[in-house]
């Protein structure tokens, strides 16, 4: 699907297509229905201001990948061979990015990540046309390690929602990253990954984990996190003898809302002995305005999203928007030098050699 954007001042220009891959399913935090308009907003900024790319303008080719590596790879091949895209934004899911990133590197097409990915993509020789605007996932696990070391806690357990129930690509990348750091530095007493919708399993696994560790790391989606913490509260684990670390990709607002609403004393007690570790989301008036704009645009073509408020807009939308502007900075230099805009390594080299890049 091609998402058309207005060109600069209606003047004749050269059109370049960029690829965009993200799942359509709104249950994913990086669903196109929760962030897709961010790439439209960024592209329209570029197209309306000729100081960016002069006589060139951008259009977007979108592919719903449903977090399926085979679909992502097939979609990318079509985007390159049929649409002749100059860059790919995404794919959003780690397993897709690992696969599609290899052919992007082989074909020298720049692939720009706007979601935290697996550690495999940090191999700059294998993925030499890949660049990401997100901080690495290992940052959160390094904070966890430093915190555990500070308190002198050596025995740790991991618990999370089952692979079939998670909505963020099985939360696989963050789980593996944290697991590797814990195995290296601590005694990892147990790892439990199960379907939290089964009340018997939920009860039994919380009961078991309380016997093998007093420091418990929780890695899963928001629904499973709440179920786990509430069950721990019911079993009396929030009385000061246990500590829970809730690991997130972002410092999501759902737990703040749960606490602030005060609708349930159980929820308040469930967070009584819980640390939340996650990357800080953007904040401030300019970002609230941006999320509002993304929310309003998502209601229209081509996403027709049924989100009910700005709070449901994905925090990844800011990174997607800024990834486009970052790419355009490199593209501008490539075009100014008369070089091929499809040359991913040349473009990334222009970005890497700049001492400092700042933009709002």
From TrEMBL:
A Pfam match: ANF_receptor
InterPro entries in alphabetical order: ANF_lig-bd_rcpt (IPR001828), ANP_Clearance_Receptor (IPR052612), ANPR/GUC (IPR001170), Peripla_BP_I (IPR028082)
Keyword terms of this UniProt record: Glycoprotein, Membrane, Receptor, Signal, Transmembrane, Transmembrane helix
Keyword Disulfide bond: no
Localization: Membrane
Limits of the Receptor ligand binding region domain: 36-353
Topology with respect to the bilayer: Single-pass type I membrane protein
UniProt superkingdom: Eukaryota
Predominant cellular place of this UniProt entry's protein: membrane
Transmembrane regions listed in the UniProt entry: none
Name listed for the protein in its UniProt record: Receptor ligand binding region domain-containing protein
Native organism taxonomy: Eukaryota, Metazoa, Chordata, Craniata, Vertebrata
